[in-house]
Amino acid sequence: MKVALIDYGAGNLHSVHNALKAVGADVEVTADANAVRAADRIVLPGVGSFKACAEGLRALPGMIEAMSERVHVGGAPFLGICVGMQLLATKGLEHGETPGLDWIAGEVRLIEPADPAIKIPHMGWNDVALMPHAAAHPVLDEGEAYFLHSYHFAADNPSDVLALTDHGEGLVAAIAKGNILGVQFHPEKSQQFGLELLTRFLEWKP
How confident is the model over 136-147, as pLDDT tens digits? Predict the structure, then answer.
């Protein structure tokens, strides 16, 4: 089973690659649309701003078309990590308005807690609390994970939200729609919790 880890100049590739290898994945780091078309599973990492990541992904010839074909038509399981999750949104509002993939309706906004004592970015370990409708999701479980972000995914449809984390307010920790899963936290930095999630992703048959 081949996992395509997309290299678009905006991911924590080395750590994600190592984590996937640690759980037994056959990983190909690639910027080639044809490699994505041939993959059994797709992982989109992401570190940095929504705008820069979106532009980097769009700069790869045929990549978004290949992702859409493999995920939406071929049914391949997809995992977006951090900004890779945020790119699933309709748009992002970091450094102006930038279109996202629009795979899961919503927008990515600045975290603006009512309590000025709450620090931004949201950085460090925090709880991942499942929504009631997501209690039996085959990949995501409750636990503690490592977060690092200043913007959050505001989903249009509550049914797309799998889990929340509390940082002055409930922020989306994970979203899903069919064979598409996105996590705001970093599984590759979340020790056993993250490795177990990646293991279940490799076994997932949506």
Answer: 899 999 999 999
